Structures are given as C-alpha cells and as structure tokens.
Amino acid sequence: MNISLVSPKSKTEVQDAYNFVKNILKFSEDHPRSLDFYLNIFQKDPRYVVIAKDGNEVIGAVLSSDDSEEKLLIGELAVDEKYRKAGVGTKLIQQLEENAIELGKNEISLGSQGPAENFYLKMGYTPRLFIQLTGNNRINEIKNNIPDKVVWENTGDGFSKIIVDTNGIDKELQKYISEKTGAHTQYLFSKRIVV
Ligand SMILES: CC(C)(COP(=O)(O)OP(=O)(O)OC[C@H]1O[C@@H](n2cnc3c(N)ncnc32)[C@H](O)[C@@H]1OP(=O)(O)O)[C@@H](O)C(=O)NCCC(=O)NCCS
C-alpha cells in the first residue's frame, strides 16, 4: 500500500472522485449535489476536494462546499470497502480540516446517517438531531415529545424544523420521534476548527 492524499489537478480528477463516491453511496435521484456543482467548486478552489490514492487508483474521497463564508459543508465522504478501518477516512478528514483552515473557515458541518455517525464522533464532531415535519406551525408537536434542549427552530416554508442538542447520539430518542410524529430525522455534525 502506497497511500497518498491529493486535491484534484484537473476536471477529470474531480469527475473520478465524484463517480467514486457516487458508486459507494449509491446516490438517489434527488441527490442535492451534482458533478457540475463540484466542477464549479473546483474552479473556485481545488482544496474543497481531497482524494486518497493507492498508486494511481482512487481509494477514497471527500467533497465539500461552502455552508457559509465561515463554515465548510462536507457533502460526501467514502472509502473503498477493501481499505476501510485502516485510517484512510481519518486522513481524508484531517487533510480537509487543514484545507478548510487555509480557506478561512472556522467550522465544518455535515449531515450523516447510519454507521458513519460513529466515525464522525471519533473524529471529534458534535452531533445534534435535526427533526423535520411536513407542514407549517407544527413545532410544538415535536417539542412536546422532546426532553432535550432545542437550539434552533424554523417554520413557514411548508415544513416545521428543529435542531436539538441531544448531548451525544441518542438512537432511542431518534426512533421514538420518527415513530411518534412521522418526522424525518437526521444527525447533523459540526466541529470548530479554529480555537
Ligand atoms: C465512514 C468511512 C468513510 C470511514 O472510513 P475508514 O477509512 O474506514 O475510517 P478510519 O479507518 O479512519 O476509522 C476511524 C475510526 O472510526 C471508526 N469507524 C469507521 N467506520 C466505522 C463504522 N462504520 N462504524 C463504527 N465505527 C467506525 C473506526 O473504527 C476508527 O476507530 P479506531 O481509530 O478507534 O479504530 C467508511 O466506512 C465509508 O466509506 N463508509 C461508507 C460510506 C459512508 O457511510 N460515508 C459517509 C457518509 S456521510
């Protein structure tokens, strides 16, 4: 194994990284970020993308964009199954964090489902539970079922959404909320990268 980390030098390398994560993550039809989206980002700055290679072969990649001027949003992260649990994901995130600092960011955020949640916990990211119900003015329906601290809420665009500080990953609470209210739920992760 001869693993190296690079940012793309050409549009073809962006395309290779995009197709790599797309194959592993099996994007659904409504996936929010297209190849064109990342080609535009690449033209702005290649450091938003980090690729892990073994020789010339892509074995992992992370793609990001601006969440805001000061916040970087990780869109997609994937490592080839054969190379998992060997530190490649850690290296990709560490390199992206360094790039983010160079890009003037002070925070990284992302949404995650399933097993990758534990990975982000290990990487020092803080989870918060995002809960979304269809329909305006339903915030209280969610709040009434939640013991934890609501840190953000919003309604008026056809949805009622809140973010809860769950103090760690609380799978039972997540399941309870989904079953009780029919809400869509997802853990959002964030990390301050400048002290
Ligand atoms: C999540 C993913 C990128 C991690 O990559 P990786 O190269 O295996 O990660 P690392 O080897 O650097 O692991 C770092 C730590 O996280 C833990 N970890 C990694 N994947 C994990 C998983 N699926 N479940 C639990 N813990 C996990 C490792 O055990 C390791 O902990 P340790 O240092 O105590 O051993 C990889 O599993 C993957 O591509 N998964 C499928 C795609 C995916 O879910 N992407 C994220 C979408 S947001």
List keywords for this structure.
alpha+beta; 2 domains; single chain; elongated; Aminopeptidase; nine-stranded mixed β-sheet; Alpha-Beta Plaits; 195 residues; binds coenzyme A; 34% strand
Topology:
Layout: E1 3-6, H1 11-25, H2 35-44, E2 49-54, E3 57-66, E4 71-79, H3 88-102, E5 107-112, H4 116-122, E6 126-134, H5 139-143, E7 149-155, E8 159-165, H6 171-181, E9 184-192
Parallel strand pairs: 4-5
Antiparallel strand pairs: 1-2, 2-3, 3-4, 5-9, 6-8, 6-9, 7-8
Bound molecules: coenzyme A (COA).
Report on the structure:
This protein is 32% helix and 34% strand. The two termini are 35 Å apart. α1 packs across α2 (35-44). A hairpin with a 4-residue loop joins β3 (57-66) and β4. The protein has a 9-stranded mixed beta sheet with strand order 1-2-3-4-5-9-6-8-7, with helices on both faces. It folds into 2 domains: 3-105, 3-Layer(aba) Sandwich (Aminopeptidase); 126-192, 2-Layer Sandwich (Alpha-Beta Plaits). The model has no long low-confidence stretch (mean pLDDT 95). With 195 residues, the chain is α+β, with helices and mostly antiparallel strands. Bound molecules: coenzyme A. Coenzyme A binds next to α1, β4, α3 and α4.
